[in-house]
Structures are given as structure tokens and as C-alpha cells.
Amino acid sequence: MSNNAAGKPEKTIKGRYVIGDPAGTFDERPRMARQPGRISHRSDWAADISRIGGLLVMGASLRGAMHYGLSTVRQDSFAIGAAESEGDSGPKWIVAAISDGVSSASQSHTFADYMARQAIIAAGEELSGCNPESLRSIEWGSVARRLVDTSVGFCRSAAMRTVPEDKAADVSKASPRDFAAKWAATLEFSVVQADCGTSGTREYVHVTVAGDGAAYVLSKERGWQTIKAAKSQPGAVASNAVLPLPLEPRSFAVSFGHLGNKDCLVLATDGLGDFIGDGNTPLGDFLKRKLPGCKSLATFLPIVDVSMYQADDDRTLILVKEAD
User: Fold this and answer.
1) Looking at the DSSP assignment, which residues form a beta bridge with residue 98?
2) What is the DSSP secondary structure assignment for residue 187, as one 8-state letter?
3) Which of 36, 87, 137, 313 has its CB surrounded by the most CB atoms within 10 Å?
């Protein structure tokens, strides 16, 4: 068992990591979500791991305990991919995306799955098509714009499949706000250089299409460096307001930077991002100790599943780190 900053073993209850007091839903038992009229089942947990170039990429999405009590499905999603151009000896770029389905939209989970995959496809096509020397040479706002259009197209097509022919004209006139009652989700993605080459650093870009997730560089020397903050930060007024796809975002946030030697890139939906904050938090301290040493899903998943007070929503985390 690893130790915390004070040299003491990490706190566990019933084999699960716990920070402070456990969530009030700690003893809530998993139960299948009710989906009237459907015979399908959506997994409570989803996880993936891949070595791409010199990097190890891990992702996990967990159904929040709150959803057990509400008998609702996991609405978070993520996707991981790689891009290379003709003539490349291997993947040149890693693409990672997170999406958080809005709880009030009944099909937000299917929409989140779709948009996370579309972010990988859109970024991959852009990277493979132009083979950039630098990520700054790509107009990422235009990529985000296309993803917004893709989200509206998905909703319109899905709506068409659920109405009789005599109602098709109504769907063609429907607005994104009409669709958002059933399909709504956040979306953000990062692109990271797979190999550092002679520079010793890896270029990255983080693009927020819509949403309230968080992105960080986690450095052994400098700790947490915020690329994009979650919706709630220390000293700020907490708000659950979010303008999700397919609604028109007010703007797109694009951030560039470089990962240094042994730096990690961390993406998180609000189920964890709100508790990481600026990193100077109990969860931030815990993840700083644990994430850099992750080598497999066996070590990664228990970290993502950590219990703490009020942290009972869906949670999704992607970790990009140097492969050992």
C-alpha cells in the first residue's frame, strides 16, 4: 500500500480509497438503470489503455453513485485515438476527448459517446490531412465549428428516425434548443505529440468546444498547472450552468503548450474536475501522489474510483504520461 504526503498509508474503507469522509452514497449498491422500452444495458464503467509512441494513455469513465439511486445510466464518455500522415513511421499525434451528457436530456449518454468519437475523427482527419510541423498551424476554432455542426446533424438525424413521416417537416424546422431537451453534452479534446524528438518536450493543444470539464499539466516539480479550469474554482461562485452541444457555444477556448520530461496531461469531467480545482485541494494532492506512478488499469481504476464527500456524480479521467 502506498503512503500519503505524511508518510502514512492511504486511507481505504472496504478496499476503496477514501479522502476525508466518504461520500454519503458510499454504501449505495450498483443497480441496473431503468430504460423503459429498451432491452439494452450501458456499462457502469468504461476503461481503455494504449501505448502510442513514447506515451501511455489511460482513460476511465465511471457511473456516479448518485445515478444508482436515480436509476439513471452513466452519462459521461471518453475516446482515445492516434493520427499519422502518409510516410510517417508511426503515430505522430495522440488525440483524447471527454464528453459529459447533461442529466436532464434523456439520450445524453448516446450523444456523449458519439461526440467523443467525432472529436477523435475530426482532429485526426485534420492532422493527417495537413501533417503540421506545429499544432499552432491548424485553425482549431474551425475544427470546433465543424463539431458543432456535426452535433446538430446528429440530433436532426436521430430525431427523424423517431417520428412518423408526416412529422418529418417539423423536425427539419426544429432548432438546436429543441434537440437539447433530448440530446445534450459537453465536449473537449486534447492533441499531444507522441514523441518528443530532439527538443525533449511534447507539443499539445487543448480545445474546449463546449463544457465545464478541466485540463491540467501535472508536473513532478511544479505540481498542477491549469490549462482549462472546471466550472468551480476556489474563490469563485460555484455554478452548474453550462451551454452544451448542440447549442451554439459563445466561444471556443484553445490553449497551446508543451509537456516537459515526465509531465502528465490530465483531462477530467466535472465529476472530478470540480474537486481537483486548482490542484491545491485534497483530491489534487491525492492524484498528484498517485497518477504519475500508474502503469496499468489495475492501478488507475481504483484511483479514479476514490470516494470523497459529495463526489457522487459520473466521473471521467484521461491520463497521458511517458511510458516506462
Assistant:
1) 78, 188
2) E
3) 313
79 CB-contact burial (10 Å; exposed 0-12 / middle 13-18 / buried 19+): buried
Per-residue pLDDT tens over the stretch 169-206: 878 889 999 999 999 999 999 999 998 877 889 999 99
Residue 141's CB: how many other CB atoms inside 10 A?
A: 14
Amino acid identity of 49?
A: I
Q: Residues in the chain, how many?
A: 324
- How far are the Cα atoms of 38, 77, 153 from residue 158, in angstroms, in the given order? 16, 19, 8
| Domains present along the chain, CATH in parentheses | 12-322 (3.60.40.10)
Instruction: State how far the Cα of 66 lies from the Cα of 31, in Å rounded to an integer.
Output: 11
* N-term to C-term CA, the chain: 21
